């Protein structure tokens, strides 16, 4: 690829970022009606998040009304930590689900290679634009969730004074929430990136679809488990060992360290959170570096095309075995439809 001058690189970056961002908002596998329906789903989901935040505020208001005479006690502090873990798990699960749903857009693919190769754009600009679009898309969703949960947070911190909440509590929670969301995002990016890097080209398409389904099922299973975190205050007070396996509690430990209330148990949780964040960022960076080096090679696209042809030939052979033209047409049409539609 030829390089752009310094004067033309920023416009190219902005154009590519808008292009990739529109691709995230308007998937190529959908027609105009499907894209319009998807936008309605997104708007409905956003309204549901806001309504859910207000509903949680009402539900937790009853709980914290019962704690009115216990503010400052150990039981109150552990209940607050457990509720914070529940609140942190919501954006973490949402970010992981969005990244997993858009797994095909996490890295520049063969289509991006064919489109961008003929343009006077450096590979670095393409990858920076892809990362910027992904960050804007995921960041906007995570910010919306945090804003929807703000009334609940203000209710939880109501007994600590407005000045302390604004000066200490809210900035610390924003830092910890951003770290938790980045950790969830980098976990999904690293998981899909390592899979794409390790597997041969002929197995990537089918394995990526299967991995996306498995991760989504795991996230759905984690939703009721995350909802039970708000009742883990007693387990936190007893420092139960199984709590160290819950990612959202790692970042609760980090929050406790930053506000100066951490004991040895919460310090251990904080170290796990920092280690998870660093490992996720390092793995994601390594995966993107490998994809960057491999981007100018059409071998993956050629191998993927050859694999697709082999699978279509196998489906056609199955149709010929039946020895009926109608069945052969059904097999060929089904095979082509399933293969081209992730």
Description:
With 342 residues, the protein is mainly alpha-helical. The protein is 80% helix and 0% strand. The chain contains 13 helices and no strands. The chain has helices spanning 9-25, 32-66, 74-101, 110-117, 123-148, 150-156, 162-198, 201-227, 233-237, 247-259, 264-294, 299-322, 325-340. Helix 7 (162-198) crosses helix 11 (264-294). Mean pLDDT is 77; it is low at 1-8 and 298-308.
Show the helix and strand layout.
Blueprint (H helix, E strand, L loop, with lengths): L8 H17 L6 H35 L7 H28 L8 H8 L5 H26 L1 H7 L5 H37 L2 H27 L5 H5 L9 H13 L4 H31 L4 H24 L2 H16 L2
Helix pairs in contact: 1-5, 2-5, 2-6, 3-5, 3-7, 3-8, 3-10, 7-10, 7-11, 8-12, 10-11, 12-13
At a glance:
With 342 residues, the protein is mainly α.
Order of helices and strands: HHHHHHHHHHHHH
Number of strands: 0
Percent strand: under 5%
Structural class: mainly alpha
Bin the helical content.
over 70%
> Which stretches are low in confidence, meaning pLDDT under 50 for 5 or more residues running?
1-8, 298-308
Number of domains: 2
């Amino acid at each position: 690829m030829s390089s752009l001058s310094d004067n033309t690189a920023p416009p190219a970056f902005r154009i590519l970022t808008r292009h990739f961002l529109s691709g995230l908002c308007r998937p190529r596998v959908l027609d105009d009606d499907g894209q319009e329906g998807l936008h309605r789903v997104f708007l409905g989901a956003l309204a549901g998040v806001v309504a859910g935040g207000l509903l949680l505020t009402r539900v937790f208001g009853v709980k914290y009304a019962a704690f009115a005479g216990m503010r400052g006690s150990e039981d109150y502090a552990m209940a607050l930590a457990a509720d914070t873990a529940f609140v942190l798990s919501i954006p973490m699960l949402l970010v992981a689900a969005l990244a997993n749903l858009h797994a095909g857009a996490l890295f520049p693919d063969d289509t991006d290679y064919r489109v961008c190769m003929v343009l006077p754009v450096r590979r670095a600009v393409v990858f920076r634009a892809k990362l910027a679009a992904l960050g804007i898309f995921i960041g906007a969703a995570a910010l919306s969730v945090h804003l929807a949960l703000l009334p609940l947070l203000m209710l939880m911190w109501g007994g600590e004074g407005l000045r302390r909440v604004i000066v200490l509590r809210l900035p610390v929670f924003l830092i910890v929430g951003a770290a938790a969301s980045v950790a969830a995002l980098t976990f999904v990016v690293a998981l899909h990136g390592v899979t794409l890097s390790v597997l041969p080209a002929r197995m990537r398409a089918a394995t990526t679809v299967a991995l996306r389904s498995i991760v989504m099922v795991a996230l759905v299973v984690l939703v009721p488990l995350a909802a039970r975190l708000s009742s883990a205050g007693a387990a936190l007070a007893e420092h139960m060992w199984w709590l160290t396996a819950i990612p959202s509690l790692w970042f609760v430990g980090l929050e406790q360290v930053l506000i100066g209330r951490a004991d040895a148990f919460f310090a251990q949780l904080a170290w796990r959170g920092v280690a998870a964040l660093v490992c996720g960022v390092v793995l994601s960076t390594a995966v993107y570096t490998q994809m960057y080096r491999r981007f100018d090679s059409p071998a993956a696209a050629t191998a993927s095309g050859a694999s697709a042809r082999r699978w279509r030939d196998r489906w056609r052979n199955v149709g010929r075995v039946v020895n009926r033209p109608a069945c052969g047409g059904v097999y060929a049409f089904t095979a082509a439809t399933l293969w081209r539609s992730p």
